[in-house]
Amino acid sequence: MSDAVIACGVVAVAVLGFAPQNNAMLTAGAERTFKPVIDGMISSICGWLSLFALALGVLHLMPQWMSGTAMVLASLLLALSGLTRYMADPGTPLEQEAAPVRPTLPVQNLQSPESWAVAFFLAGSALSGSVTLASAFAGLTLLTASGLGLWAVAGWSGCLYLSSGWHRRHLDWGFGILMFVAAIAALMPGG
């Protein structure tokens, strides 16, 4: 499997499973108008791209070997995060049940270790040559937009219960194991 496909898999799972933006897009889709969906999409994509740009800038200022190291450390963090999600008790309520306010989405990206790990993984992949910078940027943008679109359609269809504690925990089980597998695959030597 190519490095680009693995990188896309890691990013797709992390983006699709990022709870604050998912809950916001479910709520926006439930309003059944395009403006809140577009606003939420722009806000979230800007959050992911800002992190990616920051990570790219930081790694660009460091020695070349740091790109590969950052990619490996980010993969380990994502694997650990995925395993933690998978092992979480589905019966425990979520810390934040309320739907987040859409304008704060970029701030929530900045506060999430998973978001930073994705940004450094993708920036490290781009700087170490695993993927091109253009494909990393396009991949992040397209995967985020398609993931947000799926959540907005779910909200439009009346699936707001997916943001509740019980359903969210079971979604996190699935996303957790997928993230663990994708991140471990990214650590394997390409062949």
Automatic annotation (TrEMBL):
The chain crosses the membrane at residues 41-62, 69-88, 173-190. It comes from Hoeflea alexandrii. It comes from the Bacteria. The keyword Transmembrane applies. This is Uncharacterized protein. The lineage of its organism: Bacteria, Pseudomonadati, Pseudomonadota, Alphaproteobacteria, Hyphomicrobiales. Keywords: Membrane, Transmembrane, Transmembrane helix.
